[in-house]
From TrEMBL:
It holds the Pfam family Thioredoxin. Gene3D superfamilies: Glutaredoxin. InterPro entries: Thioredoxin-like_sf, Thioredoxin_dom-contain_11, Thioredoxin_domain. This is Thioredoxin domain-containing protein. It comes from the Eukaryota. Residues 161-244 form the Thioredoxin domain.
Amino acid sequence: MLTGKDDERSSKNLIEAAIEESCLRFHQAQKAHAPVFPRATYYRKTPRNFTGLACRTNKTLSFLAMDSVQFHQFAEGLGVNVLARKDKTAVVIFNAVDESSYLLEAELSKGSLVDFIVNYTEGSLSRSLRSTAKKPIALNRYPEINSQNCQQDEGSICVPELTTDTFFSTVLDKDKAVVVLYHTPYCGFCHGVAHIFLTVARYFRTVAKLQFARIDGEHNDLPWEYTMDHFPAILFFPARRKSESRVFPRHLPVTVPNLVNFVLANLGPSESKLQGLIGLCAAWERGHDDKSARDCLTRVRQECLTIIANTLAVCRTTRLRRRFYLDSSSVRDSVSRHHQQLLYKKMKLLFLKLQHIKEIHLLLGSLDRLREDSRVFRIIQSIFQVYLCSFNNGSADIPTSPETESIPIIDTRQATLQGHENVKDEL
């Protein structure tokens, strides 16, 4: 008859071994950290009624205690660095239906826990959003360089890694168009798309008002309107039109030509699209034949002519509207004078736009290739800078009486060529 007396795997011996192992872990845990219990005292002048919450709210709340040292990865999955908190203790309410979590920020005690639960049932708690500033190790990344000098180093590009804390300040910048790549460190396709994303970002590195950024969608919680349900995903947030964001079509493969066309199609104003095309041609000439470089410049010149034609059409319409207000019998009316001033400002900016596009078209007229290190490319970038400065400050130059028909034109070429010696002779 088998008694299991000397059998190490008998039920009795296994139970004793489990108890011995539990005691050993308990002694080791006491050496690592003393047991923590919440304070029993609860100082409150008017105690809240804590009973009957289930009946009043029709909600069920289950309590679960976990060893924060042994199972800290579960807390990290909810965005809580429990090992860095006091006594390695944290309280989190997790709603699986809404996929939201709420973290107790106050020190754990009976009073803070009661208030935390009551505030949750009343719906007055704010959702806790996970955010991490750690950059996951990803493949196909450019070398780490100084972000302040990255635009000056040849072949480098700055693509910041966003978090929940920095997402809105970057993406909702009204003066910049932002292209965001949503990725996860566990996504195999994201590594391949990251290389394409960085390549396109380098092509558009000279566009001043265009920013490329990335965010780990797995470890950074965002409001539902900014959350993606698949990875990788690419979103484009236009400048001054953040509500008109665009998602890269899922049915298209993420390739360099498709992503370039996606950025150009959503870049916004015609002059911004033109600047993107010029920067693309300057970066595109590396590793491509002369025909590809000429075709790229041909497209830029066609874009210039299209912008000039469209701007002239708008100028004619604006001039007719302005003359209507000048010849109207109600010209003295304050509303009419206000419309005249607005149309005068619009005419001035349109003439400024025409002149700066004309200068760029003339500079590109005799070129077969455009390089980033060429003098012509630097002059074109200076023209864009002068135009943007003049455009932003154009309202300060508007006269108070717009009855005159003369429209002053800012000489962008003369302002641009300052500081470039012998440029006129060279051109």
